[in-house]
Prior knowledge:
This protein is an all-alpha fold and 107 residues long. The protein has a single domain, classed as Death Domain, Fas. The protein contains 7 helices and no strands. It has helices at residues 3-6, 9-18, 24-31, 37-49, 53-65, 69-76, 86-106. Helix 3 (24-31) packs antiparallel against helix 4 (37-49) and helix 4 (37-49) crosses helix 7 (86-106). The longest helix has 21 residues, at 86-106. The radius of gyration is 13 Å and the shape is globular. Mean pLDDT is 78; it is low at 78-84 and 98-107.
Amino acid sequence: xxxxxxxxxxxxxxxxxxxxxxxxxxxxxxxxxxxxxxxxxxxxxxxxxxxxxxxxxxxxxxxxxxxxxxxxxxxxxxxxxxxxxxxxxxxxxxxxxxxxxxxxxxx
Length: 107
């Protein structure tokens, strides 16, 4: 399973826009790719990677609330062995750095 083939970028983008995590321009750039879901997912991931960390955390929360637990688990779970795009690897690294930070704070 490749992340970009499973991610419903349109739904996620709408929810992120409603939470002020994406601009109208970002939302429109994803919505115009309605007939190209993989490209829409790649566009969304690229936008997220260029944003502050809070946007990534919003993305994770939106995944949980838009019935995309499998995508969430792909990013945060340790058992994922499928094909990884460079976007997936970068997002997983971001998550891992958050996890390490919060574990260090809790100690």
